[in-house]
Amino acid sequence: MVRVPLSVLDLATVRAGHDSADALRGTIELARTADDLGYARFWIAEHHNMPAVAATSPPVLIAAVAAQTSRIRVGSGGVMLPNHMPFVVAEQFAMLEALHPGRIDLGIGRAPGTDQVTAAALRGVSPYLTVEQFPDHLDTVLALLSADGGQRLRATPAATSYPQVFLLGSSTYSAQLAAALGLPFCYAYHFATGGSAVDAALQLYRQGFRPSTRLDRPYAMVSVSAIAAQTTAEADYLAGPSRIMALSLRTGKLGPIVSPETAAAVELTDLDRELLAQLPATQYAGTAEEVVAALDALVERTGVDELMLAGAAYDVATRQETLARIAKVWT
Fold it and tell me: Which protein family is named in the record (predicted)?
């Protein structure tokens, strides 16, 4: 079995009874663990106006994480480009790359990372911040973060290296755009509801890939949600908060992530159970051997070059233990 590199995606989850500062400290602790265990990348998501997520500004948190780690690549998973002016994004990541050469990734997404009201507050009345302009804005960022951009504007005065740019998505649109531009592509399988969608997206990506100065062959990643524990029952128990969080997102009853005890005590209606059967939460929960077997099967089926482990958990220790258990079996 081919063992591809493993990476980590984090949302700086805010748990019940704690605050954003606790969540951000937890992210840094988790990044240190991933660094020590040999994971390839540590990415930070962008979400807004969500009680359970403190990751509102990836560049700020990337700077903190990169300063507290030594080897692992650190990046965004991702920056939601329609929320930001392209030149600002390019400047931020050019500066991060200057601070930590060879360790910065810029993962770019098209979704708002929030509801439409919050997205409107982020973008204001700017006619330039729209989803329709995403391809043009992506081209601008790519040009600004390259040695051969040939533009009057420069993201940094004297760059000696550039961040690696990835396109993120959960649709065939993003897969096809990444292929056309010759970019590595990461499919957000951790919140996908259909198993076949990832296969279709990756097939289109590989079929349409055009080599570029950034990448000479397709490079595909898939993010999955996983929790590993000593027993299957314990892992299922620890995955309870992620199921309640997924349900709250669907029903609009947002709040901090609850404890496993609270999640286990929630009385679910028949409608709740029906929704949970359709919702992504923790996709793989079990012993390390069980989770790794599922990851192996996913790699074999999709042929991906790298896996990124996500997972909503009440306690950062749950995610640290998950990473340690999986890394031990994976290697």
Answer: To bacterial alkanal monooxygenase alpha and beta chains.
> Which pLDDT score, from 0 to 100, does residue 5 have?
98
Q: What is the pLDDT of residue 123?
A: 87
Q: What is the pLDDT of residue 171?
A: 87
| Residue-range domains of the chain with CATH | 6-232+282-330 (3.20.20.30)
What does each C-alpha distance from 181 to 53, 167, 177, 234 come to in angstroms? Answer: 31, 10, 6, 44
Which residue shows structure tokens 């390259």? 146
Give CA separation, 330 vs 23, 100, 296, 324, in Å. Answer: 28, 28, 9, 10
Model pTM? Answer: 0.94
Residue count of the chain: 331
78 preceded by a cis bond (ω within 30 of 0):
yes
What is the reported pLDDT for 275? 80
The Cβ-side half-sphere exposure at 327, using a 13 Å CA radius, reads 18
Is the Cβ–Cβ distance between 105 and 123 less than 8 Å? no
> Residues 257, 241: contact at Cβ < 8 Å?
yes
Q: Give 25's contacts (C-beta < 8 A, 6+ positions apart).
A: none
Give me the torsion for CA of 45, 50, 54, 55, rounded to 10°. 20
Give the count of alpha carbons within 13 A of 70, CB side only.
4
Task: Identify the pLDDT of residue 152.
Answer: 78
Alpha helix locations (H) across the chain? 20-37, 58-67, 86-99, 116-123, 134-144, 172-181, 195-208, 232-238, 240-251, 260-265, 270-278, 288-302, 316-330
Positions in the chain whose pLDDT score sits under 70? 149-151, 192-195, 279-282
Residues 221 and 215: their CA atoms lie apart, in Å, by 14
The Cβ-side half-sphere exposure at 298, using a 13 Å CA radius, reads 29
User: Cβ distance 14 to 20 under 8 Å?
Assistant: yes
- Could you write out the DSSP letters of every residue in 27-44? HHHHHHHHHHHT-SEEEE
